[in-house]
Amino acid sequence: MGQTLCICSRGSITIDNKRYYFIQKLDEGGFSYVDLVEGVQDGRFYALKRILCHDREGRQEAQTEVEMHRLFSHPNILGLAGHTFIERGGKSEAWILLPYVQKGSLWSVLEKLRDKGSFMPERRILKVLQGICSGLKAMHDRGYAHRDLKPTNVLLEEDDRPLLMDLGSMNRSRMEVKGTREAMTVQDWAAQRCTISYRAPELFNVESHCVIDDRTDIWSLGCVLYSMMFLEGPYDMVFQKGDSVALAVQNPVTIPQPCRSLTPTLSQLPSLSPTGQSVPWLVNS
Fold it and tell me: Does the keyword Transferase apply (predicted)?
C-alpha cells in the first residue's frame, strides 16, 4: 500500500506514488467526503472518498469497503483505483480512489426526468435493470450481499451501463441469527447501514432465530425497479411524511394507475423472489 503524503499548498495529493490534483468537492456525508481529483500522469478524473475513522471499528469498516472493491472485477461494479490510510491530528482517515462517472447516479437521472415531466422508457429501464442484476449476481455468487441497494448507490455510465457503488454495507450473504441478542445486533446494524425506504422487511424486526440472506437485495432491487418506473421509491413518500416504513413494508404496494406496463417482468418477480432466484432469471432474460 502506497503512502499518502499530504494535501499540499498546490492542492495535490499522492496515493500509491501517483499524484492527483484536487478539482472540487462533489459530496459530503456524516463521516465521509467525496472530492473530484485529476490524475497528473493520466489526466483522468477520479472520485476521492475520504472516510473519517473515529475508532478501530471505523477503520476496520473502511478496510472492509476497500476489500470489497478489490474482490470484484466486473463491468457492473465500481472498481478501485487506489487507497491508503493516513493519520492526521491523532485521527485516522481512509482515502479510497474510485473512477469518476460524470453522468452521476441513477437517482440524479430520475430527478432530471421528474423535473422535465418525463419518464424513463421501458427499454431503458430493462437495460439498466439487467446491468444491476448482473452486478448483484456477481456479488451473490461470491457469497456476499450489497445490503444497501438504492438509486443513489447506482452510477450510470454514458451508455447507461450501471455500476453498483458504496460497498461499505456489504457482508456475507448468509447470516444465521441465534438468539435475541444476535437479533438485536443485526437489527441495530441494519438501522445504521441499510437505507430505511429500501430496507427489506426482515431487517426491521429481526427474529431471534432466523437466517438473513441475499434476498434482502432482491427486495431492494424491486424498490429500485419501482423508482425507475415511477421516479420515486415505493416507500419514499411514507418516510418523507414521517409515517412508519416498518409498518408500510408489511402491506402490498399499491401500483399507481395508469401503470406503465413492464407486466411480464413484474409478474415474474413475486413468484421468484422468495426463492432467491430473481437475479439469475433477470440477467438471462
Answer: yes
